[in-house]
Hints:
Layout: E1 2-6, H1 18-26, E2 31-38, E3 44-46, H2 53-56, H3 67-70, H4 78-81, H5 93-100, E4 107-112, H6 122-133, E5 140-144, H7 147-156, E6 161-164, H8 170-179, E7 183-187, E8 202-206, H9 211-219, E9 224-227, H10 230-238
Parallel strand pairs: 1-2, 1-9, 2-4, 4-5, 5-6, 6-7, 7-8, 8-9
Antiparallel strand pairs: 2-3
Helix pairs in contact: 6-7
Amino acid sequence: xxxxxxxxxxxxxxxNSLTGFAAxxxxxxxxxxxxxxxxxxxxxxxxxxxxxxxxxxxxLSIEVLDGEQxxxxxxxxxxxxxxxxxxxxxxxxxxxxxxxxQHPDVKVFVELKAESFAWLSRERVVSKTxxxxxxxxxxxxxxxxxxxxxxxxxxxxxxxxxWVLENRDLPSLSAARALAPDYLASDYRLWQxxxxxxxxxxxxxxxxxxxxxxxxxxxxxxxxxxxxxxASLRAxxxx
Length: 239
């Protein structure tokens, strides 16, 4: 069983922040998951939404974000966490790469968000992502709900890929077999008591919050457990 910090350690720290990622690693996570959005220039930002309203209180779109604006933004999640984490810089994917260089045994699941494809082509997203992650081919896994972009990543690189499923049906199974990803990911509720599809892929499920649930999923063949509170889950499993 391997634990993954979902957007870092957002139970305690702002999501997708360098402090949260570092805390998840310190808590014993074998992996972390981050979300990536791009501006029109192709800069890769570690953030979940296409706007910064939820994490900073500013409705600025990632599409038009530039370096000057970046210096003025704090993504400390004021509505959820108040001012206790002011300031929290909005990380670039390149900033996270520097952190990971200090933890070569920790995997990072880099989720490419589809919203950015409205203003930046999939081809440019793939090119920019591979450029920033160059050298992390054994550490980084590129994941997405978007099937087409994963096909492009697979054709252009040796990075492992992971397809995030939205449905548990025969067309999705057929598509998974055709893509042959290294990982299949889904909400744990997609399976309930069913056995996940067998294959050469590894299973990655979210969002697991208890040791009992994690062990039950492990008994059904799930290897990677993503959690919003990976520190508490690790502590409970260690007991």
